[in-house]
Model the fold of this input.
Amino acid sequence: MARPKGDPANVRGMTIGVRVTDAEYAALQAKAEALHITPAQWLRDAALKRRLPSAPAPAINIEEYGKLARLSANLNQLTRLAHEGRPVTIHEPMIQQLMEEVARLRLALLGQGGEDP
Done:
């Protein structure tokens, strides 16, 4: 009696070749044996179920983050002065520039423009 065929969508027909040293192979075998699975199953599970590190941030995001950090530091200083009851005077053009910069930074971080004029 033949074994029933499985779902064709679940048939593993592709092979990926990976070369390892004797020591790496022994380590893979030991890890697989500890879980009572084959080294191939351990590799498949490790590769497909493991959370990979995040991709590095694009350079533009790092640059824009720095600009945003400087703006935040300035706003924090003004807020602290206001909370201390000290007078805080900000000129209208500065507020307008700040609002424009925040809008530009938001768009740049989303990849929707934000280039300097």
In short: The chain has a mean pLDDT of 83. Helices lie at 22-34, 39-49, 59-83, 92-109.
